[in-house]
Each structure stands twice: as structure tokens, then as C-alpha cells.
Amino acid sequence: MSVPAQATSGWRDGWYVVPYQVTFRDVDFFGHVNNAVYFTFFEWGRTKYWLELMGSTLPEAIGFIVAHADCDFRRQLDFGQEIEICTKIGDLRNRSLDFHCQIRKSDGGEVAATGKVVVVIFDWPGQKSVPINETLREKIAVFQKGGGV
User: Fold this and answer.
1) Whether residue 45 has pLDDT greater than 90
2) E strands of 45-124, at which residues?
3) What is the pLDDT of residues 95-119, one digit of tens each?
4) Domains assigned to the chain
5) 8 A C-beta contact, residue 103 and residue 113
């Protein structure tokens, strides 16, 4: 049995899209997604993006730490709702880059939240930030065009 196209991660309209269904643990007493959970959605989107970019499934491939995160809430999400976690990289600086995020309702694409997460490229063994090298910049540029790496 094949997986429907909308149930797999991939590029659409300039965004890396990860499908997700809101689970019971994502909702609060009132039955809608708690505001803190949106940051977990952003995390899942950027993790899937980065692991595919790096060609890995291992946590060790995550070579950055979060420096700043913000979110604008636009629409309520409810238990069981199918959503799309959309991610793309914006500005690349010397040692940091921006992940732009959107959470969309799958039934029509209405935007439920937008956000930006600034990450710093990080050397875990050395416990220090490191510059974004040309190889990584080129890899991101190719990946962002919707191509593989």
C-alpha cells in the first residue's frame, strides 16, 4: 500500500512541508492546541528539514542550537486536525541562520501560525559556535530550490 503524497514530507511552493495530525497531548483543557506546542511543531519541521538536508536520521546531525524563537498565533487548531508544518531558511549570517515557519491547516491551507527561529551553528564536542562554511551554504541553496542534496 502506498502512502498518499500529502502524507509525506517534501517541497511545495518554496516550503519544506511536513504533514502532522494534532494529537491528544498537543491540546489543553479547552481542546485546542496549547500555545507552547506551536514551538514543538516548529522544532519538528526544522528537524525534518535539517536531517533531510544532511542526509541523516541521527540526532548527531543536528549541528545548531536555538538562539531565539517567536510565534504569531492566527487561528485555533484542535485535536485530530491535520496540519502542515512548513519550514524554509531565510537569512544566513556568519554563524547563524533563520528558519521561517508556518503552521497551516491541511484542509485549505489557512495559516494558523507563523514564526521565526534563529539558530547558531554549533560544534558540540568543542562547545562553541562555528562559522557557516561555503559547503553548507551551497548545500542549503540547492536544497531550498526543492532539489535533493
Assistant:
1) yes
2) 64-73, 82-92, 96-105, 111-123
3) 999 999 999 999 888 999 999 999 9
4) 5-144 (3.10.129.10)
5) yes
